[in-house]
Structures are given as structure tokens and as C-alpha cells.
């Protein structure tokens, strides 16, 4: 099957899974912003997205999207390094017109992944997983507001999360338009437009998540 046997097919799968994750980021950011303005509204969302069957199906689909994206990103990176051979050890300046993020997508992806593990242990483990298993009976799995307030009252977590959001910003500024290009939704005119849209979208996502983090830290003072 050409999707698996060709580099173009593998890149297409990585791009589609990446765009799926981009939509999730937008949803997650919007959901978190609600917490800043209404504890009741946010906890109602948390209860709606708890251990209900549709939420569990969504979680499995989302996890599959992450796994596919990570596997294919690793596969393509190893394939590219093998193709470059000894040239990859050469020290060269960044070529003109090539973004820094495009040359460091894999490293940025690793940073995003490592922080994702931290995020899951702080929130998903204490909420949906806890509701399913009852592993933390002292924690209310539907009180997401309390978890956000507790986490972002710690300045070190605030700093760590802001670093994570910066890495996501860099990853998105290249990944978004690159995925569009791979799918074929571009031409000479639209290529620059998609790059501009990517920067705007990444900035909105960054500012949205950062706003929630900083707002809760200020509330804790």
C-alpha cells in the first residue's frame, strides 16, 4: 500500500493526524478559557467529558491520533537521516528561506511529548482515569477548576507550561502549513497565505493557553 510504502504516503498520514491534533488544541484551548470566567461552566464541561462512553471513545481516537503522528514523525526522521548519511554531521548555517522550526521539528515534537506526559499525570490521570478506576478517591474527578487552580498556583509549573506553549507555537508555525502543502491545498499564491495563517493560528493558541496559565497564577496571589 503506497500510504505505508512511500515517503509521500507516510508524510500524508503524519500531516492528516497533525491537522486532527490541531483541531483538538483549538477545542482544548477554548475549553480552558471558560475556566477563567466560570468555575461552574468549566466543571460542567469536565463532567460532560468525564467517563461517559462518548468521551472514552473520543479519548481513544485522540490517543490513536497522537500515536500515529509520533510514530510517523519518528519514521520519517530516521528515513531522512539515513538518506543524508554523513552529511547530517556537517555544521552549516541555516539555509536562506528555511525556518528554524522546520529544521528542529523532531526536537520540538519531543519537547511537546515530554510535557504532554507531565500534563496527563496532572490532569487526565486525576480526572477521567480516576473516575474510571477510583485510584484517587480523595480527588473529585469533575472538579477540573480546583486542579487548574492548584497547578498554576505554583510558579515553577507556570514557567514549565509557558515553555511548553512556546514549543507548541514553534511546532505549529511550521507544521500547520507544511501539512496543508503535503495534502495539496496550496499553490504559488496560497503558500504564503497559509504560512501567515499558520503563524496567526499558532499565536492564538499560544496566547489562549498562556492567558489561562497566567490568569490562574494571578488569582492565587
TrEMBL record:
Keywords: Membrane, Transmembrane, Transmembrane helix. The chain crosses the membrane at residues 54-78, 105-125, 155-177, 197-218. NCBIfam families: sdhC_b558_fam. This is Succinate dehydrogenase cytochrome b subunit.
